[in-house]
Amino acid sequence: MLLEAIYHRNKQIWAYAYDGQTIHLRLRAKKGDLTKVEAMVGDKYAWDKTMELIPMTVFASDELFDYWECEVKPPFRRLRYGFVLQDGKEKIWMTESDFMKEPPANPDRLFDFPFINPVDVFKTPAWVKDAIFYQIFPERFANGDKSNDPKGVEPWGGKPRPDNFFGGDLQGVIDHLDHLTTLGVNAIYFTPIFKATTNHKYDTEDYMQVDPHFGDVETLKKLVKLAHDRGIRIVLDAVFNHSGRTFAPFVDVLKNGEKSKYKDWFHVRKFPLEVIDGIPTYDTFAFEPMMPKLNTEHPEVKAYLLKVAEFWIKEVGIDGWRLDVANEVDHEFWREFRRVVKNANPDAYILGEIWHESSAWLQGDQFDAVMNYPFTNAVLDFFIEQKIDAESFSNYIGKQLGRYPRQANEVAFNLLDSHDTARLLTLAKGNKDKMKLAALFQFTFTGTPCIYYGDEVGLDGGPDPDCRKCMEWDPKKQDLGLFSFYQQLISLRKNHSAMRGGTITFLDAKANSTKLAYVREDENEKLVIFANNDSKAQTIDVKVAEKTLQNIVTGETVQTQNGRLKVQLPAYGYALFKAMK
């Protein structure tokens, strides 16, 4: 046993309350090193009467480690615990302070989970587990009201540039809600809609006003109500890391300098405010002078932004916030933000834009989820770029699952492209079969999938600004076959709970292989999913306990032979089976 690789600590992702009655325990060990792990658990005040051994299972693996997990429901909401580790005949007992070759004489030096206090339980909105998001960049989705078009608006469908406008607005979204309903999505994430000077609106001028080019608050209320009537939730983008150059307090600082009453609303290093050799004398988003960074520790700034966060939930009834550049804002602000938002709507979804490992924000006191770019990178590397093999892909996925508590993984925002990246079809170099395989994994994985507007009809585009093309509304120019594929994926996800939650186990994910087979299983059903990420036909042969399985796409029933299921797949083919009881 390589004891140096074995790791557990109390709280965080290693011992946490999943709900008001359940504790999840996790332990890390060298990959393949342990043959059996049990959690030794009991009540600290009645150890002799309550002690029991709970089997642990490997819920995720990466290239170095196995991550073991079990679920415990302590009768009195508190837990004293340790671990029994086995490698063949060798057995070690792990306490809070030591590894022992004999069972501990008493539980005093075991790990302690003091009490499941309800206020400390990390609660995420249940509806997100069943959500299929659709991201809309409002300026490019549809022009429904030409009377509010910006000056110099260009004909719909022209080449996107950083500084041009095509007249997309909220009325355009209202006019095309049937498209979203037919597709099957039940949640929309909008990039910013508040008053700003740019087409992307990430340079907010007025946080309390809908951009006049998009409509007004009444248009937004109408959109939210019509969407809610169709069962579609609405999440807006909040840009609280920085404002725009035309934000009134910043204009005042530009004008009055050190005499401005708003000078402490921003991080000014030196007056006057100017740009020297490309670097502003004040903190900004990146080095963009038109996006000055807000001082979210300042009481007045904090009060203003928290009022904004509450207003749009209470006044308009939005269902959550996506938080731009979330990792550059102080943690204390987000803690207060969560309290304000959850008080206004306990079911609101709080989604942070963080592109890297994000456990510091996913402890239950700040965000519900983050935009899952590590997932994005893994899927693109395997299915699209084919830079890694099946084994490396499974390791990436296992590592990501092991980073966060289960409730955070269940509502992770799983995207494959966005307004900040090249489009999926372009990344796939026009290969729609590759694109479909990537989307298949996205829709059969834990967390909520998001479709970037237009992907479903074959919209392409390189990096920003090309990824922000106008939506294609001419049916003759839409890929209706691709649209049908996404419809089918969405329908399957809605109809099969195991595609949305439960566990994932890789059955075939070998080194130097382009074949993938994995199980998605919850308390209701078990699905076995196959994918051939290769330009040649391949056969995948895996061990399956059940004798009969049904293809959930074709309805065909198949029998296993000698406990194995053999599936022949065409180039870039896939198959989804449900185990029959």
TrEMBL record:
Keywords tagged on the record: Glycosidase, Hydrolase
Transmembrane segments: none
GO molecular function, one term: hydrolase activity, acting on glycosyl bonds
SUPFAM superfamilies xrefs: (Trans)glycosidases, Glycosyl hydrolase domain
SMART domains given in the database record: Aamy
Matching InterPro entries: GH, GH13_cat_dom, Glyco_hydro_13_lg-like_dom, Glyco_hydro_b, Ig-like_fold, Malt_amylase-like_C, O16G_dom_2
Any one Pfam family match given in the protein's UniProt record, by short name: Alpha-amylase_N
Glycosyl hydrolase family 13 catalytic domain span: 135-493
CDD domains from the UniProt entry: AmyAc_CMD (cd11338), E_set_CDase_PDE_N (cd02857)
Record flagged with keyword Phosphoprotein: no
Domain of life: Bacteria
Stated family: Belongs to the glycosyl hydrolase 13 family.
Identification of the protein by name: Glycosidase
